[in-house]
Amino acid sequence: MKITCMVMMATLAVFTAIPVYAETDFCYESLQQKQYDEAIRECTRQINGEIRMQHPEYSYNNRGTAYRDKGQLDPAIADYTRAIELDPKYAHAYNNRGNAYNDKGQLDPAIADYTRAIELDPKFVTAYNNRGCAYYGRGQYDQAIADHTRAIELDPKYALAHFNRGNAYREKGQLDQAIADYTREIELDPKNEYGYIHFLIATWLAKGNATVPLDRLRQHVTANSSAEWVRTISRYYLGVDKMTEESVLAEARKGKDGKEVNERLCEAYYYLGVKRLVAGKRKGATDYFTKSIETGVKDFVEYQSAKALLELMGKKKK
């Protein structure tokens, strides 16, 4: 699962030229509908002056977001930078540029941008969450926990911050706190299947009674049909459909392209490693965690979790 940062879009664009656009921002609407090529075209029309804007920085921000969602990170960063040049106090543009840097694995400038966004808007909940994600990606779990905690203080119903803080607690081996966060995340966002899986993993690692998390996962799977890749992991953990390690890896290799296959394998190796570790097969677990890391998918939770578990295993061995 990709370490999740939140993007902010501009919604307050004011039009002064073409009457047909007086009440409709097609750039923003296309972005909302995930029609990224159309969003880029409409934002570009605004930027080129075909539709005069009182706040052109919003058009650059939104076009940057469309580029980022298409995976075109350099033009996204260029657009966010132009938005900031037009309005140096545009906190959302700093947050979004931080996300693009984060996607490129450039965590230092990402953290700098999130920090500036927070300086401009001390109650910017998503910027705290996003900076916490960047700290998590650097293995700085205490800083990550502090930022996610602040996000939760500002918005106690922010499910993603609970999930992310749970991950950071788990990597530190603070499993009771992780379990509490995953439990709360599931209450706030019962559709997130990864939440149930991570609740189960934290309980296994804590050597607790897994009946409750297994039942919660089973109920979720029964009530919600899904063709998403994560359902393969759920089925394996629940022991249904005669899922084996080999069948999990076979499903992972059915991704639509090489990138997706690699991301799925990063996840699969980690989740298989956890199951082996829980079964007392430390050597097999180590092998799978190592393979997860070798995929190089550094912006996935499972990559970071595999590294953290290997480190914790090493300390316990000593």
Would you give an account of this structure?
The protein has 318 residues and is mainly α. Among the domains are: 1-105, Serine Threonine Protein Phosphatase 5, Tetratricopeptide repeat; 226-318, Serine Threonine Protein Phosphatase 5, Tetratricopeptide repeat (Alpha Horseshoe), CATH 1.25.40. It is 70% helix and 0% strand. It contains 17 helices and no strands. It has helices at residues 26-32, 36-47, 56-69, 73-86, 91-103, 107-120, 125-137, 141-154, 159-171, 175-188, 193-205, 211-223, 230-238, 245-252, 258-278, 282-294, 301-317. The longest helix has 21 residues, at 258-278. The chain is globular.
Topology:
Blueprint: H1 26-32, H2 36-47, H3 56-69, H4 73-86, H5 91-103, H6 107-120, H7 125-137, H8 141-154, H9 159-171, H10 175-188, H11 193-205, H12 211-223, H13 230-238, H14 245-252, H15 258-278, H16 282-294, H17 301-317
What can be said about this structure in brief?
The protein is mainly alpha-helical and 318 residues long.
| SS content category | mainly alpha
Number of helices: 17
Classified in CATH, the superfamily of the domain at 1-105 is Tetratricopeptide repeat domain
CA radius of gyration is 21 Å
Portion in strands:
under 5%
Defining traits:
globular, Serine Threonine Protein Phosphatase 5, Tetratricopeptide repeat, 318 residues, mainly alpha
